[in-house]
Write a structure and sequence with these properties.
Helix content: 40-55%
Strand order of the largest sheet: 4-11-10-9-8-7-6-5
Number of helices: 17
Strand content: 5-15%
Radius of gyration: 20 Å
Structural class: alpha/beta
Shape: globular
Largest sheet: 8 strands, parallel
Number of strands: 12
CATH architecture: Alpha-Beta Barrel
CATH superfamily: Aldolase class I
CATH class: Alpha Beta
């Protein structure tokens, strides 16, 4: 195994070990993928201010996210089909996060169910909800998350209608994969992945099959999911879900200052500045470009987090210095999971932790809470002068 020095190293191994359809599922955006690319490239426009002759001893990058102590202000974001990147992937990622001291978020569209993850972990995790037309299903999955002692609900608002990702259509994405000749030939080159999948019973959407009315097997699952994302999701339905949940609420998918104000008024404990990793509205601005306007709008009223495009500890520092209170990572830990399973998720977190700590020190800071605009050099036109 070659030395792992950065997230890109894990990405290369991930691409080698995981079937093409699942690697492409993680590594893709909608339509032209402009927003997907700019989520990463816009971070690179921000430069760091080096400071010298500063005492760099006794540094701390620990913090809190919605009151929960964290080793660093990073949570694992919800990612659908995580259990197709590595057998029992959600369980592996949740265990790695628990041991490392950061939160894990389970997706509605996970392979391992809420109950599966709860049975294999001891720390409470967060649950991410997609709002479906079937309100009975929504109510029951919220109740299941409560019963599993989930400590926060992450409500995703930017997937009322599914953005088109060309690679998924061309690959015939499904869980488990359809046994077409191209898929079989590709899987034959991934023996470690195949052995893992043969050794687990978790190969479909565990939160849905057997729980949604009329969905008892894979044949009925695809038709159900195709028509269930709720295009009528509005703030009234958000209020209903908030009241049904009754606990810590994180609203994810905010990409506009007015929406951020509305989410804060609804009592969200945190909002996540996010464009769904560039997988929904292609042509939207990157999350890091939008962050400053959201900070101006609601800083101090609710916690402000950001995801989409974070690939290093330096990216984390830049987001925090621009005013974010926390971050979420998706692809960065998925690369590790696909590459090395649970150990790969841990490695991704270790890489980012070291990058964050070293970068903070070289910027002349000892406490992550002291990061601010004074640590950055931001292009004057970074937010854009849009008509």
């Amino acid at each position: 195994m070659p030395a792992i020095t950065c997230i890109e190293d894990l990405k290369r191994i991930h691409a080698r070990k995981v079937p093409r359809m699942f690697y492409d599922y993680a590594e893709s955006g909608s339509y032209t993928e402009q927003t997907f690319r700019e989520n990463v490239s816009d971070f690179a426009q921000i430069r760091l201010r080096q400071k010298v002759a500063v005492d760099m001893s006794n540094r701390s990058i620990a913090g809190r996210m919605i009151g929960q102590p964290v080793t660093m202000p990073v949570a694992l974001a919800p990612v659908g089909l995580t259990g197709m990147q590595s057998a029992d992937g959600e369980i592996k990622a949740a265990r790695a996060a628990e041991k490392f001291g950061v939160p894990f978020t389970l997706s509605t569209m996970s392979i391992c169910s809420i109950e599966d993850v709860a049975a294999h972990t001891s720390a409470p995790f967060w649950f991410q909800l997609y709002v479906m037309k079937d309100e009975d299903f929504v109510d029951r999955i919220i109740d299941r998350a409560k019963a599993a002692n989930c400590s926060a609900l992450v409500l995703t608002l930017d997937l009322q209608i599914l953005g088109q990702r060309h690679k998924d259509i061309k690959n015939g994405l499904s869980a488990p994969p359809k046994l077409t000749i191209p898929n079989i030939l590709n899987m034959m080159t991934k023996p470690e992945w195949c052995l893992g999948m043969l050794g687990t019973k978790h190969r479909s959407f565990g939160n849905i099959v057997g729980h949604a009315t009329g969905v008892g097997d894979l044949s009925s699952l695809s038709s159900w999911t195709a028509e269930q994302f709720d295009p009528q999701l509005d703030w009234g339905k958000v209020a209903r879900i908030r009241d049904r949940w009754g606990g810590k609420l994180i609203i994810k998918g905010v990409l506009d200052a007015d929406d951020a104000r509305r989410a804060a008024d609804f009592g969200a404990d945190a909002i996540v500045v996010s464009n769904h990793g560039g997988r929904q509205l292609d042509g939207a601005l990157s999350s890091i470009r939008i962050l400053p306007q959201v900070v101006r709008a609601v800083k101090g009223q609710t916690e402000i987090w950001i995801d989409s495009g974070i690939r290093s500890g330096q990216d984390i520092l830049k987001a925090l210095a621009l005013g974010a209170d926390g971050t979420m990572i998706g692809r960065s830990y998925i690369y590790g999971l696909g590459a090395m399973g649970e150990a790969g998720v841990t490695k991704a977190l270790e890489v980012m932790q070291k990058e964050l700590d070293t970068t903070m020190a070289l910027c002349g800071e000892r406490d992550i809470r002291n990061l601010g605009a004074h640590n950055l050099l931001v292009p004057k036109d970074f937010e854009g002068d849009w008509a």
